[in-house]
Amino acid sequence: ERVRFAEVVESLVRAGHRAFVEVSAHPVLAMAVEQAGEGLTVSGTLRRDDGGRGRWLRSLAGVHVAGVPVDWTTQLGAESTSPVSLPTYAFQRERYWPSAAGAKSGDVRALGQGESGHPLLGAVVALAGGDEAVLTGRLSLSAYPWLADHAVLGSVLLPGAAMVDLAVYAGDRTGSPVLEDLTLLAPLVLPEQGGVQVQLRVAEPDDHGRRGVGVFSRADDEDEWVQHAGGVLGGRATAAPVWAGVW
Predict the structure, then answer these.
(1) pLDDT at residue 142 in the model
(2) Half-sphere exposure of 1 (CA within 13 A, CB side)
């Protein structure tokens, strides 16, 4: 009988039938029908211990959303099948890009500094008597909660990519836009409470136009600075290497 049933289903599928509804108190043959081909709509009507009108209507809705025409008028009446307006829903969104507002607490120009323009930095200080520069900022989880996503062994660390971005930005501000090298020396850990002060020190250019750059930080309640990265900024882009052979 199973072989005969499978042959009947296969013949129906070959004839172009794509929707099958098992009318029973509980679906028994539906699984066998699903194996007859891909893209078939297979549904039961009732289920064991779930045989009320609600179950029947949910089964009808299942085939309806699959594209099978359903005459809802015979089930719900003409008045119940008229279109209704969906309830309004306020458009909600959440911004994940860092905002520069978290790094500023006032007009830095009034303190003799320049605005940084970087989300993680608050000010730029051009040192007198030379061509050095210092970029400063303060990082905390309250001002930048998205930093908490980068945690290692329970400690929140500033990602290495962020240090690269800070160094590149420091080069852009000092006319040395190429980051030729950057070595990460120590992780920059963000405390759960309070924050850390951050400095990027850019040295004067040497005879070849290269500048040293360093990333430093210290906690709010500490006096000692810790260097987290050091590298070299170049004044112009170098020629791309020519690879020998064919990859």
Answers:
(1) 87
(2) 1
